[in-house]
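#onboarding

Welcome to the new folks! Below is a worked example of what a typical request in this channel looks like: someone posts a single protein sequence, and someone else replies with the predicted structure as tokens. Don't worry about understanding the tokens yet, we'll cover that in week two.

Example request:
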Amino acid sequence: MDVYKTGIVVLDSVDKSQKSQRRKSVSAPLLKRDLSIILTPPCQERAVTALFQIIRRTKMGRAMVAISQDAGAAALMGINVNRISALSLGIGSALAAIAGGLMGTLLQLTPFMGTLAIT
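Example response:
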């Protein structure tokens, strides 16, 4: 019979390998959560920095800024408004996917997560 610090008594009829598997399964989610708390902020920082660099330093980013200010004037300057709008939609979708993946490491994901916000 084993007595743990929490006061739980385990009889000797339980196999030793089952005890070690039970201990591993209890400590694994805690380790994953701690690791995700450590790794999530740097990933977020890199994504935001990459977005900032794309918008400020590339020709495509400058075209996005021009279209957001005045789409008609940007079209007169030779910018393909439809192409840049499609690219910005793709970048936004990619950032949403990254955010969802990072939040999945911190929160429990269920199929009905957003139903309260919709109703």
